[in-house]
Amino acid sequence: MNALESPSTRPYLIRAMYEWCTDHSFTPYVAVKVDGSVQVPREFVQGGEIVLNISFDATSSLQLGNEFIEFKARFGGKPRDIMVPIHRVMAIYARENGQGMSFPVTDSPLNSTVLGMDKLHQVPNAPEASEASKSESSDSGDKPVPPSPTRPTLTRIK
Fold first, then answer.
1. Tell me: the pLDDT tens digits for 5-37?
2. Of 42, 56, 76, 157, whose CB has the highest number of CB atoms within 10 Å?
3. Whole-prediction pTM value?
């Protein structure tokens, strides 16, 4: 077995850090670089990244597998199924003190042959206006319409 065939140590290190966090009553967080292979609520993605609380209290059916981290969690009160490929995890750390491990984010070297890839659902990216469409709308003289907020806001009326 050569270096290319040897299994990744990343899932084992993630499980070890998760266990360390829970053994010491810390809250384990994972930072994830989001792309089309990551199944998370897109409205909570900021700058192409999302931080997920994977503690026992925040998740249900947590599985820290060799290829994916899978669990169910509530976001804004709505239950969601979360699936993160291990190679998209940037870091795992304790919320309380920031101690943890970071990892380089890579595209899967086996892309289509990764075990469990058949379980993965492609999630479309959040709609974004292109630069061309922004310049076209400003050329027409119309004021650009501000984007609607992703979260509801409360307006107080007296």
1. 678 899 999 999 999 999 999 999 999 999 999
2. 42
3. 0.66
